[in-house]
From TrEMBL:
Biased composition (Polar residues): 89-104
Annotated region (Disordered), positions in chain: 1-24, 89-111
Name of the protein described by the UniProt record: Uncharacterized protein
Source taxonomy: Eukaryota, Fungi, Dikarya, Ascomycota, Pezizomycotina
Length: 111
């Protein structure tokens, strides 16, 4: 696992006290910037993890929607087939009726 900013800072503080450095003010400033950047990265990682969880929840909801859409489409296909069957039956009835009328005309029952 990574070193925490506090351990990072403590280790470098001990090092600087034992060996004075003319660049120490810049090093302290740079170290403080690095510690802040480390903290910012940890917060950013946490934000990204939260966003990932939200995306995963949305994906699950979208998948549920797709399942419902597929179910509705199957229902519509069945309804369409039922209507086509009823239309075919009615067309058969109309044809029979037309044939009966044609035969009645031939037999002289209808003008």
């Amino acid at each position: 696992m990574y070193t925490t900013p506090e351990k990072f800072q403590a280790g470098h503080t001990e090092l600087h006290h034992s060996h004075p450095n003319p660049f120490e003010p810049d090093l302290i400033k740079n170290r403080a910037n690095l510690i802040q950047q480390w903290s910012d990265l940890i917060q950013y990682q946490s934000s990204l993890n939260q966003a990932l969880r939200e995306v995963q929840l949305c994906r699950a909801r979208v998948e549920q929607c797709y399942v419902k859409i597929e179910q509705h489409c199957r229902g519509l296909d069945k309804y369409k087939q039922d209507l086509q069957r009823q239309v075919a039956q009615h067309q058969g009835s109309v044809k029979s009726l037309n044939d009966s009328q044609g035969q009645a005309q031939i037999d002289g029952w209808m003008p």
